[in-house]
Amino acid sequence: MDIFIGQGKRFLQRLSAYPQVYAVLGGLGYFLAGFCLSAASINHQFLPLTVGLICGSTGLPSLLAAVGGIWGYLVFWDALQPVAWCAVAMILSAVLGDKRVSRALPLLMPMVASFSVAALGVFSRFSGEAGPPVFIFLLRILLCGVTCGLFSRVLRERNPLYDWFACGFAVLALAQILPVPYLGLGYLAAGALVVRGAFPAAALAGLALDLAGITLLPMTAILCLAYLIRFLPKQPLWLGGVTVVCVCAMVMYVCGIWDITPVPGLFFGAMGGVYLPSQAPLSHRRGAIGLAQVRLELAAGVMGQTQQLLAEIPETPVDEDLLVQKAAETACNGCSYRKNCKDHRRIAQLPGALLHKPLHSIEELPIACKKSGRFLAQLHRSQEQLCSILADRERQKDYRAAVLQQYGFLSGYLQQLSDTLTQKADNIRDRYRAETKVYCNHPSAGNGDRCLRFLGTGGKYYVVLCDGMGTGVEAAMEAKTGGELLRKLLLAGYPAEHALGSLNSICALRDRAGILTVDMAELHLGTGAVTLYKWGAAPSYLIVDGKTDKLGTPTPPPGLSASGWQPPAKRVSLRNGERLVMVSDGVGEESAFRICREKAGAPDEILARCLLDCGTYQGDDDATVVCIRLKEG
Hints:
Blueprint: H1 2-16, H2 19-37, E1 41-42, E2 45-46, H3 49-56, H4 59-76, H5 81-96, H6 100-104, H7 108-126, H8 134-156, H9 160-174, H10 185-196, H11 199-212, H12 219-227, H13 239-255, H14 262-273, H15 287-311, H16 320-333, H17 344-348, H18 372-420, E3 432-440, E4 449-455, E5 460-468, H19 473-491, H20 496-509, E6 516-524, E7 529-535, E8 540-544, E9 547-551, E10 569-573, E11 579-583, H21 589-598, H22 604-618, E12 624-632
Antiparallel strand pairs: 1-2, 3-12, 4-5, 5-6, 6-7, 7-10, 8-9, 8-11, 11-12
Helix pairs in contact: 2-3, 2-4, 3-4, 3-5, 3-8, 4-5, 5-7, 7-8, 8-9, 9-10, 9-11, 10-11, 10-12, 10-14, 11-12, 12-13, 13-14, 15-18, 16-18, 18-20, 19-20, 21-22
């Protein structure tokens, strides 16, 4: 049995390494989630769980969830009111999803979604449709807001409490789906949670089955009792399927209720749960490790609170009326007609909106005076001051965003470090080993291209190609500094996105925008998957079976803006002998693509030499070629 379990796990890992499979399964997952959540009911009344998923996600996932939800409500309920829920939720996700106002006000989306459900319910009642009982109406409003906030948190962060409640809602929805007799999806999910989930998740799954009203058996008691077998030492996982059947029979005998409909689903769910990845158990904080874990969590909380406090500092508005008033005072103080002028007070009271007009001539002034030219010149100076102030505000806003990101990265990193303190080390051997070859046209200390190759944490191998702007020693120092910073962050356990975001923030704070480009490949040695991060770097090329695919699109270099730090990521696979070729911008994009297609079957040395010769022919810029393969063993 253990051999088959291991083979199943390895098969799922190899399958997940394909990026196309990963993307398709992700989209299909959102569609099916929206479809299944629409089946949730209490007292045979439909619930807006799908609305929470739509509002909690953004972009294409939100659209797929909405389409699945509309189809599900029509299939399960044949009602138009929940279809209207999904349509309104899709509009709300497009308007408010992942916007600055939604991030600043986390409760805005749940409140608006709940209000829309309430408004549509009142409208349907006034239109003559038979409405649900009052407590169901209020329950729908409450569940819409709760699930919207819950699913948004589940999709953006890892928290055991949110995952437990999400499992409970999922079982509540799946309990109403019975594809074949005696095999309900709710029972399958509950059985899997008994074997692989945490105890609160199993208890909430039992509560969901009781609320769904699909059986008279006390499912909460059955799942909690069946979970106790996991506390026995060294028990095989497949024993959970036998245990849940025995517990069901015992509860039937005690309660005098003979209902075998939950038994097949719980049994096959528990047996299938053996193939699911295990979750790290909640740690018992004891001794020095527990104290260090508590301190790390406190530090992470302080960092997160500091980030929130800094984000809540209001922006001081620019007093444009004062700038106009100072311009008027300066112009009037040196005017020889000031004593007899009756308009100098009116001039000082002009609105600040005047500074936003072109003001090319004195005829554009809203008031005339004998020295209009002096006043116009002072207004031009005030306009220049306003432009300088606004530009300075934008720079300060960018610097502030960079600092906020650093606090956020540190908070997430400390929390992740705290979670991994008590986890057991994974001694599984890596399935692949990385083979990288680097070729340069100027292999000297003044080369502006720097390639770093190193083994990170968690079975990850990194290849980082940094290209400093220009050539010479200064470009080489910038590339070396940026590459070393990334290497230290990744070795410390920083996620790749956070490490690149930190580099971007530092470039923005130093006013060194565009000083270097970053091309990074994150190789997962356990699955053969590779994630490419390109930030201003030239495209890479994937060569397989004599065919060449270009990877990556032109993007601006890091440091231009701290608010838009996220680099695009591309997932590929190297597990079947593919070759990944990374090049710096010293090699022309069109020429590199052509050469990679023509020399797709050539050895690495010949391919790299052709690419470097092409770069030398086009100019004196530094050129670097990196060939990456994965070998088993």
